[in-house]
Amino acid sequence: MNRRELLYSTGMGMIGGTVASAAGAQSRAESTNGRALTLADYQPKSVLQVKETHVPRARFPVIDIHTHITVSAGSKNGVDLAAERQYLASPQELLEVMDRKNIRAMVNLTGGFDQGLTDTVTRYDRAYSGRFYTFTEPSYPLFLKPDYPQLQAEAIEQAHNNGARGLKIVKTLGLYLRSEITSGTLVKIDDPRFDPMWDTCGKLNMPVAIHVSDPVAFFLPTDRFNERYEELSSHPDWSFHGADFPSNAELLAARNRVFARHLNTRFIVLHVGNFAENLGNVSENLDRFPNLTVDIAARVGELGRQPRTARAFFDKYQDRILFGTDATPHGDETPQQVFNDKLYEIYYRFLETDDEYFDYAPANVPPQGRWRIYGINLPGSILRKVYNENAARELHISA
Ligand SMILES: [Zn+2]
Q: What's the pTM?
């Protein structure tokens, strides 16, 4: 029984089913005629009248450190197995939005490995110099080879020669990769077989963009107390509660052992250090490990609901925060990361204005929890660092 079937076979599933099917019905009767309104039909419109600032262009040129322009053409049980890439948008399509939004460069983290990586670099990075940068990813299909540690280190070196600017680790490590690749027991993030990979990145000055764990709510039961209940109901496979999944704390502890063991390797810890719900924890790790920076991708919803704490965080760590969105062309399933003008305008509004109570994603219902956000009104000196100077330093390109 898979997770979806499991969910539907429980009482939980009844609610989940109602939400999922009702979500498809575009417009229901305006009046509920005394019937109970389902959660999926509830789309309250705020009547609050406050200042609304439109920020069509970023105040300074932007490097988006976290995008997904290409993805693997084949994966199984959450593990990317195909080197071949699927291209989600043409360079021309991307450049139009980039020029409108003052985006100097997009960093495509999921560039894959082998020929798929080379093809991607040729098609984007080399064809439009300075506008696109591509990261490589681990060659998990090689994982069962006895000399995998060495082969993986060599693959990173080869990827570097072929134009990769860094290494991306997706949450596959810790949550999907297993002892027999797609089956068996989960492989730990600090498994020593990856040590040569981390070290090679340090030696070659390639930053490691790392995503481990996921929002804390995904590790809690999908029940009436879960603040991301609707999101988990529509994507039951995003829940890491139960089964043999480690806890969020265990994943972060294993990740921290990697940071501690590889102090000469630079890590860009994605999604606000993988723990945007707890900036105290992220601050502790930034203080503890000088080799870390963080990005803000897909977490303006978290940062913007704690604007005073977030502003203090940006003030204190202004040299270590990178602009990122998780933008995915045509990623309509996840409005908080769909690549379009509106997405960037929300990020700019959050960073540059003191606007209050606005949507963190271009969607009718907030997709990552039913709340709205507040801008943090950063001064130009910090904006410049966050928009491009910090990323330029980590990527070894001119600011
Ligand atoms: Zn991402």
A: 0.91
